[in-house]
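Support request from a user on the community tier.

User writes: "When I paste my structure tokens into the form, the page sometimes reloads and wipes my input. The last time it worked, I copied everything first. Here is what I submitted, just in case something in the input itself triggers the reload:"
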């Protein structure tokens, strides 16, 4: 299954949070194929560099960078040739939808469903789900 993994899920995995951690693990195991593009990678790198955010993390900065490198090896690089601008509540999340559409993803995995579901432009077959919902969908 092709997915787009929002930055907040990867951060959750770095913090050791259950479902986020499990989804990243399943990506590394090959169960899910995450898509990656320049805007999302830049966002990952920016957020992972915020040391205050990871004050209670089991992973130090070098370990977070190593996890990102390992995760990137499991990603499919996707070029985005067309900006759809679905007009999300948070303009900074539009790139997630654009990546999903460009790469043919089935799901965007995020903890921020409210903003992603507020899109004015809808794409049939693309669904935003939480990490727990994704794991549950795959079990049933």
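"...and here is what came back when it finally went through:"
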């Amino acid at each position: 299954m092709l997915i787009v993994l929002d930055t907040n899920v990867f951060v959750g995995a770095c913090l050791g949070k259950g479902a986020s951690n499990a989804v990243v693990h399943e990506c590394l195991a090959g169960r899910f194929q995450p898509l990656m593009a320049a805007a999302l990678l830049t966002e990952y790198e920016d957020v992972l560099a915020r040391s205050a955010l990871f004050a209670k993390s089991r992973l130090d900065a070098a370990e977070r960078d190593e996890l990102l490198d390992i995760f990137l090896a499991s990603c499919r690089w996707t070029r985005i040739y067309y900006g759809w601008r679905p007009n999300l509540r948070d303009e900074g999340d539009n790139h997630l939808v654009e990546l999903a559409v460009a790469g043919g993803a089935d799901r965007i995995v995020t903890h921020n469903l409210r903003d992603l579901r507020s899109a004015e432009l809808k794409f049939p077959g693309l669904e935003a789900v939480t990490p727990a919902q994704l794991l549950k969908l795959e079990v049933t």
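Agent notes: The reload is a front-end session timeout and is unrelated to the input. The first helix runs from residue 7 to 14. The beta strands are 2-5, 33-36, 76-77, 107-109, 127-129. Escalated to web team.
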